[in-house]
Amino acid sequence: MGERMRLDRLLATMGEGTRAQVRELVRAGRVTVDGVPARDAGMQVDAQASAVCVGGRRLCYKPVRHVMLCKPQGVLTAARDPKQRTVMDLLPPLYAAMGCMPAGRLDKDTEGLLVITSDGQLAHRIISPKHDVGKVYLARVDGPLTAADAEAFAAGLHIEDADGAFDARPARLDILSSGPQQSEARVRVTEGKYHQVKRMFLARGRTVTYLKRLQIGALPLDPALAPGEWRELTEEEVALLGQDAP
Predict the structure, then answer these.
(1) d(CA 109, CA 140)
(2) What's residue 178's pLDDT?
(3) Percentages (nearest 5) of helix, strand, coil residues in the chain
(4) Beta bridge partners of 184
(5) 39-45 own/partner pairs: CB under 8 Å, 24+ apart
(6) Could you give the percent of the chain with pLDDT greater than 90?
């Protein structure tokens, strides 16, 4: 036996509409439970075992949801915003209805891996610096990078700028290419201060021109996902979030 709940609550939780709207669906005969038309929106159903269909489409209930999103540039990492599109606007209403929220944030102009989950404890593990979950980024900057920059990142940088001051934890900077006009590097950090990666490079005299998150913990971004695309995580992938990024 799975979790039992009212039919109207289940339908609303699954993003099929408000309680009033799903009651209208039931009255219209569009909802079946185990092949039988539902007559009472308040009937108790087994959320996981009962075959609940809306318009012939079977719903798949899960008590928690975890989504991998390839966040595009130009979209806010927020649950909602009255004026701008947010990452939650990229997902079907089901996920907001189930209480899914972004685990951490990416700047509006940054793209890449974002985990959206209804599991608050998992989100906390991803976000909290005390859990030391590494995040790996690909960064392009407007000038050369040197071994001295990698050494400075590894030692930990003191950041003091218009946004405030803090001591950044030691980070790993792997230089992929270096040129007079542009360089490319992978950066691994274990905290997420405001604009942190950009501010770390600025402390070394370099401006980030492109930033993409590639990995959280041991979970890499699925290369098949284009910016704006998403899919649910497998149980094995959720476990990777608790492992260290190599």
Answers:
(1) 13
(2) 98
(3) 25, 30, 45
(4) 140, 177
(5) 40/7, 41/6, 41/7, 41/8, 42/6, 42/7, 42/8, 43/6, 43/7, 44/4, 44/5, 44/6, 44/7, 45/4, 45/5, 45/6, 45/7, 45/10
(6) 78
Query: Quick check: 122 and 103 in contact, CB under 8 A?
Result: yes
Give the number of other Cβ atoms within 10 Å of residue 241's Cβ: 21
Tokens of 156: 């930990």
Q: pLDDT tens, 23-60? A: 999 999 999 999 999 999 999 999 888 999 999 999 88
Inter-residue contact 103 to 217 (CB < 8 Å):
no
β-pairing, 111-117 vs 208-216, is parallel
pLDDT computed for residue 17 by the predictor: 85
Q: Is the dihedral of CA 184, 212, 237, 120 positive or negative?
A: positive
Q: What is the CA radius of gyration of the chain?
A: 22
User: Domains of the chain, with CATH numbers?
Assistant: 4-58 (3.10.290.10), 66-130+218-240 (3.30.70.580), 134-216 (3.30.70.1560)
**pLDDT < 50 positions in the chain:** none
DSSP-derived letter for residue 89 is G
Give the CA distances from residue 41 to residues 28, 62, 73, 78, in Å, rounded to whole numbers and listed in that order: 11, 20, 42, 33
AA letter at 47: A
Tell me what pLDDT residue 246 has: 61
Q: What is the pLDDT of residue 128?
A: 87
Q: Of 34, 107, 174, 222, which is the active-site residue?
A: 107
pLDDT at residue 62, rounded to an integer:
82
Decide if 167 is catalytic: no
The DSSP H or E segment spanning 140 is strand 135-141
